[in-house]
Amino acid sequence: MVLNVINPFYEKLAKVAVNYSLQIKKGDRVFITGPTLAKELFQAMYVEVIKIGGFPLLNPQIEGIQELYYKYASEEQLEYIDDIQFSVLKEFDHYIILFGNYNTRKLSLVDPKKLAKSQGSTRQRELIKILEERMSNKELGYLIIPFICNALAQESDMDLFSYSKFVSKALFLDKEDPVKDWLKFERKQEEIIKYLSRVDIIQVIGEDTDLKLSVKERIWENDCGHKNLPAGEVATSPVEDSVEGKIRFTYPGIYQGREIENIYFEFKDGKVIKATASKGEDLLKEILKIENADILGEFAVATNYGITKFTKNMLFDEKIGGTIHCALGLGFKEWGSKNESAIHWDILKDMKIVGSQILADGEMIYEEGQWKI
Description:
Layout: H1 8-21, E1 29-35, H2 39-52, E2 55-61, H3 65-72, H4 75-78, H5 83-91, E3 94-99, H6 112-119, H7 122-136, E4 141-146, H8 150-155, H9 160-170, H10 178-196, E5 201-206, E6 209-214, E7 221-223, E8 233-236, E9 244-248, E10 253-255, E11 258-260, E12 264-268, E13 271-276, H11 281-289, E14 296-302, H12 314-317, E15 323-329, E16 344-350, E17 357-360, E18 363-367, E19 370-371
Parallel strand pairs: 1-2, 1-3, 3-4
Antiparallel strand pairs: 5-6, 5-17, 6-9, 7-8, 8-14, 9-12, 10-11, 12-13, 14-15, 15-16, 17-18, 18-19
Helix pairs in contact: 1-2, 5-7
């Protein structure tokens, strides 16, 4: 027997996503994709879109498909993307990804060259370009939202109940009126962005780190829940040829479910000239072969202090208050970036460590995980 009852947790999350994050309107076409295990979140999102008067199209993905793809696909198939996927990004008003997993290590045995070939294909670059252009022009609402599942809880070293509480706090769903709190969060970050918008040079100082980059005339993004839930960062794209110096990332980089540990980069004239890792260096080298993946497409400071634990899930981790992250590859045109790439890969650094600082035009604005402005 199927009960006509929506899970109240996901109902609350869906209301935030539909009414605050995307502000879906009557008549909007809404594409919703994610793993089949996210059934309750699919149902909640479907109902909220219907209530608004939108037209939802669901695309649940069957377990095991990715593994089979990389196991049996030819080189031609690795580079193929069907025209239907292009049509969805070109024609729909909103694109929603429900983020969940039944096995976070499902691609661990895949040849790094196959992963790089698929991610770096011409068709993939074309698809990313359409997505980026429509988002930049405010023609496409794009949102990633989490589904609570055992695999992600296990990856976070938590039981499912503790993980559920962690997710609820990160999303402000532990508040009586989450939308009110997200609006307050949005206004607070806007003040930080007003300051950063007047800055030319950012310098990051920390453990094995002294990195300078120009953000002159670049736009800062107020990540406050309109593209990702949870949210919590201020971000921009550095001037492409301006990045100089070195940086060591203190958290593992997670790429297609695979961990690359103790990543260290040196930059000159905006490009990576040296890259090492204590684990997964072979995959790191393959990633850097992807066109323009050796250029930083993003620099961001995380601001969600409700997220305090590294979970190996960048949807949460890149928002951990007291950290920064940089992304290799694609920079967003709406921020002023000119860097086009088939990937946008975030890597995280803890800035709560003693001696860690961010300077803006020579003035210290951030120290050991806290803003000083």
